[in-house]
């Protein structure tokens, strides 16, 4: 039976960054991905968030994976909050000692990570669906189906589950606890051939509901509307979406409608699985934790997990030190809960709730934020990721402690 040191299940940002870093150290890595390369790179259903924290940008650049991101990504030095009919800009460099963020679609990052991995001569086993994990206590063995429909096995010294929010492997952690929260609303998202509402993102709080105005390029807008969780996409013809976006922007800006490239509905939820490991098995990325998109943290958390696990495997294989692998869960939970906190904060701060009391509190909070440099600093520090990817921003350059 074939054997590798680290078997990685899932070729999203988490699995691919880890594969790059481990293969770069000369470790034997296998990446198994259930979907095809075309699906991962092009499927319109895969349009995901597009904000890289300052630390995430540093990690990718230091790993030699950021060439296209640095050219085509858009550096943003602030965001706008819109409420009470006015725009309030948060100046990130001023509030965070010079930090900014990068707007770059997750899908583009995945394209880059796949291309560069293959160019380095490594393999990604697309259309290899993992259907089981055997002998976890002794010799973890991945059971997978090949594109030809055969069932085969791969023995791994370690297995990493980076298989996304619908993770099959999550259930491999005996006694794992799933801490979660759902919200009574969803996001109706559009990608459109249209000019973005502004040069930076606008997070708009409006009595009719929250709206977010983002972008993928100066000619592609990415906008979202808060809608009830039971809403149906069929009830939202394009014209209604544009009209509603503009109503929620009244008095602060307006968007010009353009052809839609994509339309989707995403319920908001928060989830943390703990522990994130068992024996020789580790979970990372969306398989281990979900954040509502309001804080733009999902892809960044995936990259944090990858750097942390990389450092732990490196200590294990190069210094024979199992300590960092054993400490993976408590270490990861620090950045995970920080991002959960911020995503929850942004979600409750910006979405209009049904309960008028809750809404009164929310609006008081928002107005306070508009006037308080302290609260603005809290938001900006979290948005640029000082305590998430910022914790790892220099580590790819630094030697591992033995
Ligand atoms: C996006 O550009 O898709 C985006 C930006 C910020 C968010 C969520 C999504 O908070």
From TrEMBL:
Superkingdom classification of source: Bacteria
Ranges for domain FAD-binding: 3-341
Record-linked InterPro entries: FAD-bd, FAD/NAD-bd_sf, PheA/TfdB_FAD_monoxygenase
UniProt-listed SUPFAM superfamilies: FAD-linked reductases, C-terminal domain, FAD/NAD(P)-binding domain
Stored Gene3D superfamilies: D-Amino Acid Oxidase, subunit A, domain 2, FAD/NAD(P)-binding domain
Pfam family, one: FAD_binding_3
Keywords tagged on the record: NAD, Oxidoreductase
Entry's EC annotation: 1.14.13.2
GO molecular function: 4-hydroxybenzoate 3-monooxygenase activity; FAD binding
NCBIfam families assigned: PRK08243.1
PANTHER family, alphabetized: 3-(3-HYDROXY-PHENYL)PROPIONATE/3-HYDROXYCINNAMIC ACID HYDROXYLASE, BLR0106 PROTEIN
Stated name of the protein: 4-hydroxybenzoate 3-monooxygenase
Naturally occurring in which organism (per UniProt): Meiothermus ruber (strain ATCC 35948 / DSM 1279 / VKM B-1258 / 21)
Organismal lineage: Bacteria, Thermotogati, Deinococcota, Deinococci, Thermales
């Amino acid at each position: 039976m074939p054997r590798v040191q680290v078997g990685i299940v899932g070729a999203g940002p988490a699995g691919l960054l880890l594969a790059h870093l481990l293969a770069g150290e000369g470790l034997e890595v296998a990446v198994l991905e259930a979907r095809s390369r075309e699906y991962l790179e092009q499927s319109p259903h895969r349009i995901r968030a597009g904000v890289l924290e300052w630390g995430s940008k540093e990690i990718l650049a230091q790993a030699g994976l950021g060439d296209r991101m640095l050219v085509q990504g858009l550096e943003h030095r602030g965001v706008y909050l819109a409420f009470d009919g006015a725009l309030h800009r948060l100046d990130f460099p001023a509030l965070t000692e010079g930090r900014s963020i990068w707007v770059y679609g997750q899908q583009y990052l995945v394209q880059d990570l796949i291309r560069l991995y293959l160019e380095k001569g490594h393999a990604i086993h697309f259309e290899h669906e993992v259907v089981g994990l055997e002998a976890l206590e002794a010799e973890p063995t991945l059971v997978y189906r090949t594109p030809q429909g055969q069932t085969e096995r791969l023995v791994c010294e370690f297995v990493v589950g980076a298989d996304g929010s619908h993770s099959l492997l999550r259930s491999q952690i005996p006694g794992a606890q799933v801490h979660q929260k759902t919200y009574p609303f969803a996001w109706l998202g559009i990608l459109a051939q249209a000019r973005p509402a502004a040069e930076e993102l606008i997070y708009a709080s409006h009595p009719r509901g929250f709206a977010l105005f983002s972008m993928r390029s100066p000619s592609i807008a990415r906008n979202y509307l808060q809608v009830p969780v039971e809403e149906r996409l069929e009830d939202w013809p394009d014209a209604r979406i544009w009209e509603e976006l503009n109503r929620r922007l009244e008095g602060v800006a307006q968007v010009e409608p353009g052809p839609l490239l994509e339309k989707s509905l995403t319920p908001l939820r928060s989830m943390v699985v703990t522990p994130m490991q068992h024996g020789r098995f580790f979970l990372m990325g969306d398989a281990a934790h979900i954040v509502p998109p309001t804080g733009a943290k999902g892809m960044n958390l995936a990259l944090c997990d990858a750097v942390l696990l990389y450092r732990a495997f490196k200590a294990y294989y190069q210094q024979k030190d199992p300590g960092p692998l054993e400490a993976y869960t408590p270490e990861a939970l620090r950045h995970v809960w920080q991002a959960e906190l911020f995503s929850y904060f942004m979600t409750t701060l910006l979405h209009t709730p049904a309960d008028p009391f809750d809404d009164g509190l929310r609006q008081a909070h928002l107005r306070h934020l508009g006037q308080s440099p302290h609260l603005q600093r809290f938001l900006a520090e979290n948005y640029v990721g000082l305590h998430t990817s910022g914790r790892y921003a220099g580590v790819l350059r630094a030697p591992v402690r033995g």
